[in-house]
Amino acid sequence: MKTFKTCLTSIALSIACATASAGEVEVLHYWTSGGEAAAVNVLKQEMESAGHTWTDFAVAGGGGESAMTVLKSRAISGNPPSAAQIKGLDIQEWGELGFLTSLDDVAAAGNWDSLLPPVVSDVMKYDGHYVAVPVNVHRVNWLWANPEAFKKAGVDIPTTWEEMIASGPKLKAASIIPLAHGGQAWQDATTFEAIALAEGADFYRKAFVEHDEATLKGPTMVKVLTTFKQLRDLIDADSSGRDWNVATSMVINGQAAMQIMGDWAKGEFTAAGKKPGTDYVCVAAPGTAGMFTFNIDSLAMFTQSDDSRAQAQKDLAAMVMDPKFQETFNLNKGSIPARQGMDPTPFDACALASMDDFTLSAEKGTLVPSMAHGMSTSSRVQGAIYDVVTNYFNASDITAEQAAEKLARAVNASL
Ligand code: GAL
Fold it and tell me: What start and end residues bound the annotated signal peptide (predicted)?
């Protein structure tokens, strides 16, 4: 098999031939963990091999809240980067503000409309024009398990939330932390939305896409919140503030048995040289088999006054959609390519399952946009949900019924 470097060179040569003048690209992103850094390095190498100058503007902080804060200050000061990791409905917000430049010429030359499913291409457009390029499709509703840990404790990997809760005592008796978790609002929300999805895609959409008040405060949401709170018995006392990739490393080293996290976690297993099926197991989050919560990473392009920077921006967008880049980046990132029709051969069993479920869930109506990762609702509504969910998860004096009422009120106030 060709090495990653060989593949990269071939892409760069194709881009370099088309690049009249080299330029500089400054890219803001929050891909700073082991697997993420390996993935973004693919893009950096590509652009440098094509003769451009890459200025890396990495802002650590899982979920991207810190990165977005820094981006806003840069944009307001009239000095935005060339490109930024902006995704989901945030693209509409930035487009509305007039900061983003059109990529329609690159998209037409690259036949993006024929290579991207509408569920992806629609997210990349503001007012009908491409303003962002998709690098991947992440699946969020995953459970990552260490099979040795479960074997040691004599319990099966859970397929329902009730089984997960019931597995706690035996895992603890074997001195294993049942659930690796990072006590950060976006991670709380990632777990919360998986529990909600287990109640069905229709319930999920009514809550997090349609913001239906009766659904947000109804008995099913109370049940979801009750289950969510019970997970506290599965996490360790040091989880507060823990970064997601540190939680993943706890599963990798067997200190913890499992983690609910998107498949950027797989990038950490890959970076650690672990193999799916032997060193770890990927299964749908409990109760969500056959369903797919999508989270599409994308680079949105900010209008540049300098011609060489503008050209470098277009080369960057063209490069991201190149099949070899889509393969190499996603092999490192743990996600699947946004570009359809790719050769599945290089991808592992978890990625192949993700590709299959992405297609099948779209056909069955169980493909849903991630609320926790900015796909289903605005950043304002997402922030309101984050606040209610994480305060409830950490408080001892808020009942599930009270939390559901707060959820409905907070979402309504943020619309
Ligand atoms: C998600 C993002 C992923 C990964 C993850 C952890 O929102 O889409 O690419 O960065 O956060 O930070």
Answer: 1-22
Q: What is the DSSP string of 226-290?
A: HHHHHGGGGS-TT-BT--HHHHHHHHHTTSEEEEE--THHHHHHHHTT--BTTTBEEEEPTT-TT
Tokens representing 119?
């569920």
Give the tens place of pLDDT for each residue, 218-249: 999 999 999 999 999 999 999 999 999 999 99
- Which domains does the chain carry? 4-137+296-349 (3.40.190.10), 139-294+362-414 (3.40.190.10)
Which two tokens mark 31? 């891909």
- For residue 215, give the H/E element and its range: helix 213-217
Q: Whose CA is nearest to atom 3 of ligand 1?
A: 264
Per residue in 373-404, pLDDT (tens digit) is: 999 999 999 999 999 999 999 999 999 999 99
Question: In the chain, how long is the greatest CA-to-CA distance?
Answer: 65
The answer to whether the beta carbons of residues 163 and 178 sit under 8 Å apart is: no
Among candidate residues 187, 178, 192, 191, the one with its CA nearest the CA of residue 235: 178
User: Using CA positions, which residue lies closest to atom 12 of ligand 1?
Assistant: 62
DSSP-based three-state secondary structure for 54: strand
Q: Using a 6 Å cutoff on CB, does residue 63 contact ligand 1?
A: yes
